[in-house]
Design brief:
mainly alpha
Length: 217
């Protein structure tokens, strides 16, 4: 006789239901967020087909819900496995590898501007909140962009000093993130297509200059 390892306990069922409800609320909020406006908890609850009272048990404020929705949406903008495969398909040409990263990641933040702006707002709100609580409690955003930029220069590891390549990776981080949307669209007043072109060109300039500097004795 084979014993099933599946947990059919009432506690497990309640946990799964809570997770489904939470996911439904986040998914509903992210869909509303993609429409270009931050949703209220009642709006998200209605779309998720749950009561407003239930929604407030999961999220105390609309801002909490926006944060979860923005972070959830940012993970949906790209397929990490597909991006990594495309980078490796570019071979050892680091500029071609960079083009893949910018086109698939950097451009995604421009294409999904409401999500980018919500991520920036959430980050700023966290920072200001931390200042009233503790100077050491500064919020830290995950450095995902550096993981991708590190893949760009990986073929050069062993031929150039690691510390100098790390500097190139850090410099590329300046043009790969949500804050570039603010600069390109709000400050420079560029259209989405022009912003994409400028982002790609700037990234190439940084890479070329950084590698030239790294190659110096």
């Amino acid at each position: 006789m084979t014993l099933s390892c599946q947990d059919n306990s009432p506690t497990s069922g309640r946990t799964n239901q809570k997770e489904r409800t939470r996911t439904a609320l986040i998914d509903a909020a992210s869909r509303l967020l993609r429409d270009g406006r931050p949703p209220s908890i009642p709006e998200a609850a209605a779309l998720a087909l749950v009561s407003v009272a239930t929604a407030y048990r999961y999220f105390r404020t609309a801002e909490d819900l926006w944060e979860e929705a923005a972070l959830f949406d940012s993970t949906l903008l790209i397929d990490p496995e597909a991006v990594e495969a495309a980078i490796e398909a570019a071979g050892d040409d680091v500029e071609a590898r960079l083009d893949v990263v910018v086109r698939q990641l950097g451009w995604a933040f421009i294409d999904h501007e409401p999500v980018s702006r919500q991520i920036m707002k959430t980050s700023l709100d966290r920072w200001f909140t931390s200042q009233t609580e503790s100077l050491d409690a500064r919020p830290v955003r995950p450095g995902i962009r550096n993981q991708w930029n590190a893949l760009v220069v990986r073929p050069l590891r062993g031929t150039l000093r690691d510390d100098r390549l790390d500097e190139v990776v850090d410099a590329l981080g300046l043009v790969l993130g949500t804050e570039t949307v603010l600069t390109l669209v709000d400050v420079l007043h560029l259209s989405p297509e022009a912003a994409k072109d400028r982002l790609l060109i700037t990234a190439r300039w940084i890479l070329r200059s950084g590698l030239a500097e790294a190659a110096r004795p």
